[in-house]
Amino acid sequence: MLRNPIAISTCLNSLKTYFISRLLKDSMNERLYEAELAGLGYVVGSSWDGLVFNVEGYNEKLHLLMDTILKELKQLKVDPQRFQILKDESERAWKNFVLESPYSHAAYWMGSIVSEVHYSYEEKLGLLADLKPQDIETFIPELLSRGFVESLVHGNMTALEAKEISALPQQIFGLAPVASHELKPVLPRLISPGSNLVYERPLADPSNVNSAVDYYLAVGDMADDGVRTRLMLLNQMLQESCFNRLRTKEQLGYIVRSYTAMSPGQCALKIIVQSERDPVYVESRIEDFLHWFLHEKLVPMSDQEFEEMKTSLVNKAVEDFKNMSDETSHYWMHIKAGYYAFEQRFADAEMIKGLSKASMEEFYRARICPSSEQRAKCSTHIVSLHVPVPSEVIRELTPAAVGDETGSEGFQPSPADMTFLQSKPDRAALEAYLRAKKNGAPQVDSLIDNLLRSLDTSLKLLDAQISKTRQDVHLAHFPNIFHDIASLKNGLQIGPGAKPVPDWKSSPLSSLPKL
Predict the structure, then answer these.
(1) Which of 217, 330, 450, 471 is the most exposed, fewest CB within 10 Å of its CB?
(2) 471-475 contacts, C-beta under 8 A, 24 or more apart
(3) Looking at the structure, do residues 163 and 213 belong to the same domain, yes or no?
(4) Are residues 226 and 374 in the same domain?
């Protein structure tokens, strides 16, 4: 990994760095085709603050392969025709992102909220039109003029061979040094205790009736051993119940996921739901689930079941890598994060063994439960342009339901009516359709008016149900809704970046903290 702070200093520089990696890969495809057939592989990409080069295969040829790639980069000339092709591909990909699933958008914008620096696809699209081949060529020597090199060499190589391949960027580019304080770490924007933040954003795809909620509960610093291990165990305990209740029982949507979000400076429990229901309603059901889990699952959980949960998580943590690729990815993940905690999983396993049920209840009540005054919560709501009227409301729109036993004589739903009702109309479309059914006959028009009033009453009852849920779970803080992501982010504090764990080369079991 070749790091240079200039790569991330502006959105434009980030975009240029991205295209340098794309152009280099494009220029190497034909030249290295035979090498790939012979069992060698390579990946060139852009990272947070620079470029990443990955080579794999027969160890005696990897030095030559890396040397070839780096020399190609040094003398890279931008072919205007190829640049335009790659530029058009990127433009299509970023424009097509608006057609991605709503839950992808919810996760994407949540990632932006909790990151100090995040250059969105919208910003990149705004700069793309004016980007010229000469801009890229001019930037290449700037990017390669100085840098900090971090390398992972894993496999059948001696220490001397590893040092030789790691020294190639310095030898080929003549890199001037970058001071450690210039290297910009990935910094989080912290969700502060006592927060209930909501970023609401419309879904750009008018044909998609699904909405999505990304529900983020920040629990503390990822580097805090007690916080991290409790979060891991909580996710182990909560995952199945979350899916069963929200997906299987309440049938909110096909996509229901809960998992941990680990990032430098902050970690969180995340629940993602994609649903045809309004995001405000979905969020109320998530909060109802979190309240239910404490009182119906965690508190009454037997000691035996609790120990089984811990044992299962410990076994996962210390499980052997399935292959060399998994092991390499594990080491590289910790290098990129900046903690270098390569053996942390063994220390985590020992700490998990010592966690008590009482400590988990305390953790849950303080960091997760909706009634907690100190809970740090943020969610993104991606709202469909046409949120469907819930099916149970449509099923209630019958003459008998509105007290008109004779209405069916003057108004019989036709096959076209049934087709429309099955098309998942939103409120505006359903009301317009019903009004269009008026024909001047008093009996029919009266029935339509009653159906419209019934629709309004049913939807108000759903709103009342949301309010009741908030009361039932004793929601400590009502949502603070934002429609401008910049305003939300500007109100968040910047957290600390990752710091390497002390003595990461020594045994991880020698200085375990007591919980």
Answers:
(1) 471
(2) 472/288, 472/291, 473/287, 473/288, 473/290, 473/291, 473/370, 473/371, 474/291, 474/370, 474/371, 475/196, 475/287, 475/370, 475/371
(3) no
(4) yes
How many other C-beta atoms lie within 10 A of the C-beta of residue 174?
A: 11
The answer to whether residues 272 and 286 touch, using CB atoms and an 8 Å cutoff, is no
Alpha carbon 343 to its chain's center: 26
Residues 42 and 141 in one domain: yes
**What are 200's strand-pairing partners?**
381
Total domain count, the chain = 3
Q: Which tokens in the block code for residue 371?
A: 């009634």
Q: Does 255 map to a domain? A: yes
What is the C-alpha separation between 447 and 189, in angstroms, rounded?
54
What Cα–Cα distance (Å) separates residue 355 from each residue in 182, 222, 297, 298, 509? 40, 17, 17, 14, 16
Give a yes or no: residue 500 inside a domain: no
**End-of-domain residue from the set 182, 205, 230:** 182
Domain that holds residue 87: 2-182
Q: CATH number of the domain at 136, please.
A: 3.30.830.10
Tell me the C-alpha to C-alpha distance, in Å, between residue 171 and each of 144, 145, 162, 182. 12, 12, 15, 22
**Per-residue confidence of the chain (515 residues) as pLDDT tens digits?**
999 999 999 999 999 999 999 999 999 988 888 888 888 899 999 988 899 999 999 888 899 999 999 999 999 999 999 999 999 999 999 999 999 999 999 999 999 999 999 999 999 999 999 999 999 999 999 999 999 999 999 999 999 999 999 999 999 999 999 988 888 888 999 999 999 999 999 999 999 999 999 999 999 999 999 999 999 999 999 999 999 999 999 999 999 999 999 999 999 999 999 999 999 999 999 999 999 999 999 999 999 999 999 999 999 999 999 999 999 999 999 998 888 899 899 999 999 999 999 999 999 999 999 999 999 999 999 999 999 999 889 888 765 555 555 444 445 677 888 889 889 999 999 999 999 988 888 888 888 899 899 999 999 999 999 999 999 999 999 999 999 999 999 999 999 888 888 865 654 444 444 44
* Residue found under tokens 């909580």: 234
Kindly state whether residue 505 falls inside one of the protein's structural domains: no
Instruction: State residue 505 phi and psi, 5-degree precision.
Output: -85, -15
